[in-house]
Specification:
Blueprint (H helix, E strand, L loop, with lengths): L6 E6 L3 E6 L2 E6 L4 E5 L5 H12 L5 E5 H5 L1 H12 L3 E5 L12 H7 L8 H8 L5 E6 L13 H5 L10 H9 L6 E6 L5 H9 L6 E7 H5 L10 E5 L17 E7 L2 H14 L3 E5 L5 H7 L4 H6 L4 H7 L9 E4 L4 E3 L8 E2 L5 H9 L30 H6 L11
Parallel strand pairs: 7-8, 7-13, 8-9, 9-10, 10-11, 11-12
Antiparallel strand pairs: 1-5, 1-6, 2-3, 3-4, 13-14, 14-15
The structure holds iron/sulfur cluster (SF4).
The site of iron/sulfur cluster has 12 residues, from loops.
Length: 405
């Protein structure tokens, strides 16, 4: 049978990701990192085509006819797909839909939590948990301003004292081969003798970061060990304080900043003393400063170098929070958010906590842009960096310069 040349297959390449939501269409190409974008589409035909492509999760290929093909906006869309090597429109010569193999399904199956019901499966399937563990050895101090996000978790108290469970915590952590980072957060009331013995017994391969005030470090409360990294919190009048330690290459000098002037000061200090610095924006009703330094723009999205699989993982879990576990001074294991299952290390293991958290619908591990206003109405929802501590703190989820309706 001869097919009349008035039907076409319009398809998106397997290495491209298409998202259409609320008349907003984007196609991201993972190979050349280009983005095609149409905002506020008012053409019914293009809207309809975008909708169909978006709902065809199997292969992103649909049939269109001559009339649709000739529509000016559709034609423009096809030209852009071709120019960016992200898709094509070919004449339909038979009834077999072109087979476009997508790696995307695999990512979806790998993270299908509805089929996971025990910890073994979770660990086997994800090979990610836990990836970062943070232990807090103190309570309410000046340092809380450095960690506002976990303030709530830290304020929970119980009868137990974390120092009595150091052996259990150590054995729990030892079980995981996927932990890449262990943070030890020290406060004014931290028992440094216990911390030092805990740190010294650690022979694991993960990176240990010890966070404390620079003065505590200089007073030699924390025993220096070349194997670990020390995050020392400072203010900009460091003065001569750091002369004795500035040449250690495993020290990061951390500064909380609220405005551009402070950033300039720190850059000057960094150049003058040749030290490694970390700048952490602190929110203090300084939204203009945040717009400049925190807000996401298109370049940030491209620079993430995302693969289509990465984007699909963003659809399912918040990679910023996922696998991060905190244990506070009183032994409560949490995700650091005030919406978390709180189990105590005195009665439970970190394993118990992971399993419970995975089944907790409101877990921050699954706090996704696609479910939250206004991002859920934006086609970038799975491309943007996952929701961050700042957004939770500000209760505002579109810290971006990208999509304004
Ligand atoms: S932050 Fe939200 S609104 Fe802004 S571009 Fe990303 S998904 Fe869209």
């Amino acid at each position: 049978m001869k097919f009349p040349v008035n039907k076409y297959w319009l398809y998106i390449e397997p290495y491209a990701y298409l998202k259409y939501v609320e008349r907003h269409l984007i196609v991201y190409n993972e190979l050349n990192k280009t983005i095609i974008e149409f905002q506020n589409i008012d053409d019914k035909i293009l809207n309809n085509i975008a909708e169909q492509l978006n709902s065809d999760t199997e292969c992103c290929c649909i049939e269109i006819d001559e009339k649709q093909r000739e529509n000016e906006n559709v034609s423009n869309f096809i030209t852009q797909l071709r120019t960016n090597f992200s898709g094509d429109c070919i004449i339909k010569t038979n009834n077999f839909k072109p087979l476009i193999l997508k790696q995307k399904k695999e990512a979806r199956q790998q993270f299908d939590f509805s089929k996971i019901d025990d910890l073994y499966q979770i660990r086997y399937k994800l090979k990610l948990l836990p990836r970062e563990i943070t232990l807090h050895f103190g309570m309410k101090s000046e340092y809380d301003k450095y960690y506002p996000f976990i303030d709530n978790a830290c304020s929970l108290s119980s009868e137990i004292d974390i120092y009595n469970y150091m052996g259990k915590i150590y054995n729990n952590i030892k079980e995981y081969s996927n932990v890449s980072t262990l943070n030890i957060i020290c406060y004014n009331d931290t028992n440094y003798a216990e911390i030092n013995s805990f740190i010294n017994r650690n022979h694991s391969s993960y990176n240990v970061f010890i966070h404390c005030d620079i003065l505590q470090f200089l007073n030699k409360n924390v025993v220096f060990n070349k194997k670990h990294t020390y995050c020392l919190y400072c203010n900009t009048d460091l003065g001569k304080n750091i002369e004795s330690v500035k040449n250690y290459d495993n020290i990061i000098f951390c500064f909380y900043v609220k405005n551009s002037e402070e950033i300039e000061k720190i850059q000057a200090i960094s150049e003058q003393l040749s030290i490694t610095t970390k700048i952490i924006p602190a929110y203090d009703n300084n939204i203009n400063f945040f717009e400049k330094y925190i807000f996401t723009d298109r370049d940030d999205i491209i620079e993430q170098n995302l693969s289509v699989d990465d984007i699909l993982v963003n659809e399912i879990l918040n990679t910023n929070f996922f696998g991060r576990i905190y244990v506070n001074k009183f032994g409560f294991i949490t995700t650091g958010s005030n919406k978390s299952t709180y189990l105590n290390i005195s009665e439970h293991s970190i394993n118990d906590f992971i399993l419970k958290e995975m089944q907790f619908n409101e877990s921050i591990w699954f706090l996704l842009r696609k479910n939250i206003e206004p991002c859920k109405n934006c086609a970038y929802c799975n491309l943007c960096p996952p929701i961050s501590e700042y957004e939770i703190l500000l209760n505002r989820f579109n810290l971006c310069n990208i999509y304004k309706k």
